[in-house]
Design goal:
single chain; about 500 residues; alpha/beta; 9-stranded parallel beta sheet; two-stranded antiparallel ribbon; 15 strands; globular
Amino acid sequence: MPKQNMGSLNYRILLMLCIISEVFAVGVFGFAVNWGTRSTHPFPPNIVVKLLKENGFNKVKLFEADPGALKALAKSGIEVMLGIPNEFLAPLADSVQFAENWVTRNVSAYVTSGVNIRYVAVGNEPFLKTYKDMYLQTTLPALQNIQAALIKAGLGKQVKITVPLNADVYQTDSGLPSGGNFRNDIHDLMISIVKFLSINGAPLTINIYPFLSLQSDPHFPKEYAFFGSKSNPIVDGSITYYNVMEANFDTLITALEKNGFASMPVIIGEMGWPTDGDPSANNELAQRFNQGLFDQIVQKQGTPKRPTLPEIYAFALIDEDAKSIDPGNFERHWGIFNFDGTIKYGLDLGNGKSLVPAKGVKYLARQWCVMSPEANILDPNLGPSISYACTYADCTSLGYGSSCGMLDARSNASYAFNIYYQTMNQRKDACQFNNLSMITTADPSPAAPGNSRNSSCRFEIMIDIGKHELARSPSSNLGLVNRKSRIVAMTSLLVLVSMLFG
């Protein structure tokens, strides 16, 4: 074959390969995200998986072995970090058999069915000072037993162990990253854990929260919490740090270097910004922070000590209204998306791609429970009724500095009545608060169209769990979508091949 014809053929082959890679690519970039499932009205897992794929998330971290989530992830191609809650650390540490049984049920079974489990995260921030040393004796033995169980199951090379730790496991006495070392009270334990991970070719996972730095310290320079700021920099020798994320991460890298683990791989297991439940938690600040974070990921921009970008799991995919609020009301509002997959704020995902909302979500009827116009705000039953509603439903948006924190007394009561009513699946008896309430079909949200107040406060309508339970199983739905997608993709490829080689 003549050389110029050969060159033309090579070019066409290269072009076809590029087209194939574009057709089968999952999203534009490989984003990673945390998927929490502590909700009174769980987001249907099959819809979540579609949401992940359509927004370019090809890695996900689960906090527990949720069967619905794992089944929906089968054959999706999405990499999974599977978490083990802290309450399992003691039994895992005490019994290799318990660890083997856990791996058989929650790892082997799902790997066999096509779930791409890459990591098992043993515990979740077990060394937080608020736990008062509860897990100091059990974390490493649990880690060792899970590793042994993975090896026995033939998964030792395919699935790696890790321990997600809070950034408070290291510190710097000088206030500079170059002064970094592990916390004195757990120094030896941390070295043992890092050494064990290193021996088994596993990464260390650290959760970093600039929001918590800002939220917990009234003197913390606000701009230093965000990417792209040039104010309040920290100069550490020849390095200048412009944001707390980079300084925090490099403090850890210094700690690893000082203790002989300079090349230890590190994953950032959680990083994000909440949108409610605190004066510093709102859509504007969350958008600013997360856009900066996603820009870092798209640009593959690391830190001064680790120029190669670490794997970062954004926190989190959706809000969780049943999550513990011990750290603060903001805990239920970390989602990039609302609880139902609707978009809170826009994000540029690179290459002109924006967030895409969830599709196919079914809701309860368009009706709300509100305070009756005839009811008196001085009624002695009003206070106890609001208290009762907020005991069994999520009223964190009513707190000081939150999205619904500026409501008047009547609207405040209406919000509480409605969130309880929705949480109880709009049962008729769930809108009976001592003759103080009524059902309406007019959206009472200050942010609703036609209402005069400019507010982000929303009176929610919950997901209709019953309708989704009657739908086809997640695996069958996903399989149908995948088959149709493959048929369309292959048809397109055949046409393109014909055009190139015809």
